[in-house]
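Notes from the 1:1 (GR / supervisor)

We went over the backlog. Supervisor wanted to see one worked example end to end before approving the batch request, so GR pasted a single chain during the call. The sequence is below; no edits were made to it. Supervisor asked that the structure be written out right there so they could see what the output format looks like.
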Amino acid sequence: MTPKNLVLSPRGLRVMGRTLPCVIGRGGVTEAKREGDGATPTGTHRIIGMLYRPDRMARPAPWAVPILPGDIWSDDPADPEYNLMTRAPTSFSHERLRRADPLYDLVLLTDWNWPDATPGLGSAIFLHRWRRPGYPTEGCIALDPLHLRWVAARLEPGSRLIV
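Structure output shown during the call:
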């Protein structure tokens, strides 16, 4: 384990000597992740990217990529772009990355079922800000926005999330 690892524990997300409160998927933690189950997948996942809203914040790290109008993440197992960032319009089911609410203003991307996704094994497993303390996600790990910014400023691509 290195100092840049993020480790999910019953008390929160341990990172760089701190334990930060967080929330996980409404389906708990699972070893058998499926699209739409609301569960957070177990395992060791690499942080492979960082997205941010440049109209709402300064670049949080040199390797962060801006979220632009029309950026989406495919969550449709029938989509050839399943579990990838792509652009609207599309007829496939997807999540808008540039949302009206601040949920995805800063997103850390994991390598869960990526880059060669198996359809139906889950998509869009991110670290992002929480809606509010204790409110579960659809499978992501969510943090207080100030804690998320603190983490994002210190991580490097390839850091590990251990669930």
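Supervisor's comment: The longest helix spans residues 145-154.
Batch request approved.
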